[in-house]
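To: structure desk
From: M.T.
Subject: fold request, one chain
Message: Could you run this one when you get a chance? Sequence is below, nothing fancy, just the single chain.
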Amino acid sequence: MSGRGRHLAAVVVCVLVASACTSAADAPRGRAGSAQPDEPTASTTSTAEPAREGEVTLAFAGDVHFEGGVARLLERPRAGLGAIGRTLRAADVAMLNLETPVTLRGRPDPKELENAGDRYWFRTGPRALDVLAAAGVDVVSVANNHAGDYGAVGLQDTLAAGRQRGVAMVGAGRGAAAYAPHVVEVGDLEVAFIAADGVQREGSSDVWSARPGALGTASARGSNAEGLVAAVEAAAARDQLVVVYLHWGKEYESCPTHSQRLLARDLADAGADVVVGSHSHVLGGAGWAGDTLVAYGLGNFVWYHDRQAETGVLSVTLDADGVVQKSWTPARISAVDGRPVPVTGAHRRRAVADFRARQRCTGLATDRGAAQADDPAYESSVRRIDAALAERMRRSHRPGCPVPLRDLRYLRMTHRDFDGRARTGEMVVHRRFTRDVRDLFGRLYAAGFPIARMRLVDDYRADDDLSMAANNTSGFNCRRVAGQTNWSQHAYGEAIDINPVQNPYVRGDRVDPPAGRPFAAIDRSRSAPFRLGVIRNEDLVVKAFDRIGWAWGGYWVSSKDYQHVAARRP
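Reply: Done. Structure tokens follow.
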């Protein structure tokens, strides 16, 4: 940050043993304190009680590493990241997630808790920090699933490189010190930056979750989130503006998980002013949880491929009372060198509109001060088809149906609608599948997958066309296969249609429902651009049904029934 005159007073050192300590803007780089190794501490150069006047502007971006073609940026570190650097340098403090250790030492961590096919090891040299510093980056989070790729030695080297290169690092340390904030003083305002990792632990070694006396990353998993919340409360009690950068969410999913929503609520209640995050590789929505600005996903930022090219910088201005303004500067990741290139003109307008639209499924409020949507625990129930329900189902179940009512069960299950609100849906399936279906929709609820509505087809006169047109997710319906005399698997209670508009039936030029035509030919690969309610190859919906022995119609050959999942038959 030296040479950036807009920085007033000092950047305060985050005091850890072998941790990421950085110096003041006006002080020598690399200065560190001598606090006890497991105590989260932050020092300040001010001695008088601040007046807390003025404003501070912060800039946030997503995941960065220097793999593949991105490594060529190391050849010209002073060039930074190109034009996007103007947005980063315009802020008083810019922060992102450094998704790589900075080390040439160490051995690859086994990462034995990660799926074998999903194990990746990244690392880079100290010039990477020169690239970031030249681009205007001041603070990075190292609380992620790659900081420990080369063990404690690699993490120690990373933190040392941050001190030497003047880039502050948060989210690692020994024990509770991993949650220690990096504090920046701009005018009369102090901003505390804290980071933690909330995704699946990569391995059993301490580097993936700091414990007393052992160097590791700050964890927000399970009960470890208490340490994060305590750090936020402590910073807020010092009358500091509090920023939390989280590594969280489901890969390739834009809507937040249930656990993300709960953690965001807890951090807001603890006094956080801004909560941002990354990890999912795609952009997530942003909005308000009371007075706290929450941005669930900032996507990839500097990356070795452009399969999820949409990215950008979130700029946030705060005064002593919190956030007063926010803006989104959209960009696209270059296929040549992985840098984010700002978009302009009509492309910029569409990208800004898309970022704003992603708020829809988050449950976050549009205006500051408004509450986020409720986050009840998942609930489900099952019961037999009684006389009253049989009367209601008189259109969907008629004499001659292949399954008697006694073999069907009525389910009620919590789900998220497209606006991120918790709803209670209903469905009828064969009794053999009640437990599996209830558990499965519990997993979809936990993952934040949105379902537009879930009603019995009888609410639509048991007319499949009407149910699809209403974008209704449904199960049992005693009907034939369209255009055939054979019974559909729906007639046996062993098939479910999900979000039919976003996942239409496609055969040649035929698209059902007709409203699904815009979704008929979209990219449905696992890494395809996010679309609300869309099912994709090998995504969480397909995998969840596969676990219970059901198959997705999106894999059919002569036609594609993207809404359809059904039990496999011998």
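Reply (cont.): Residues 40 and 180 are 4 Å apart (CA to CA). Let me know if you need anything else for the meeting.
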